[in-house]
Design a protein that fits this description.
The chain is an all-alpha fold. It has three helices and no strands. Helix 1 packs across helix 2.
């Protein structure tokens, strides 16, 4: 960013400053601006574009991770269903066996 001290001092002179005052104020303004952490619009746009790209990449990573978690949850759900079905059949077999044993036990006692 380029600031013209001559242009600033002429504007100040047009508003009633003396030549010395105008030059002094212009030099101080330029010094303040050049030694400060002011940001240009172009710099800010570039930084925002960089941040947007990083954020987009992170969002994509999170979506991929969520997709992976959903797949894993689906596998766990299937495994849980298989175990529950196996336990149900085991429980059914145990119940049938117990009924068979009790019927034979009581029928043979007679």
């Amino acid at each position: 960013m380029s600031i013209s001290t001559l242009s600033i001092s002429r504007r100040l002179e047009a508003r009633g400053f003396t030549e010395s005052q105008a030059e002094g104020v212009a030099e101080e303004l330029v010094d303040i601006v050049e030694n400060s952490d002011l940001v240009t619009k172009d710099f800010l746009r570039a930084e925002m574009a960089g941040l947007e790209a990083k954020l987009t990449a992170k969002i994509s990573d999170v979506r991929t991770e969520i997709s992976d978690v959903r797949v894993e949850v689906g596998h766990l759900k299937n495994d849980t269903i298989k175990w529950l079905i196996s336990l149900q059949f085991g429980s059914l077999a145990l119940t049938v066996g117990l009924i068979y044993f009790l019927l034979n036990y009581f029928l043979l006692k007679r």
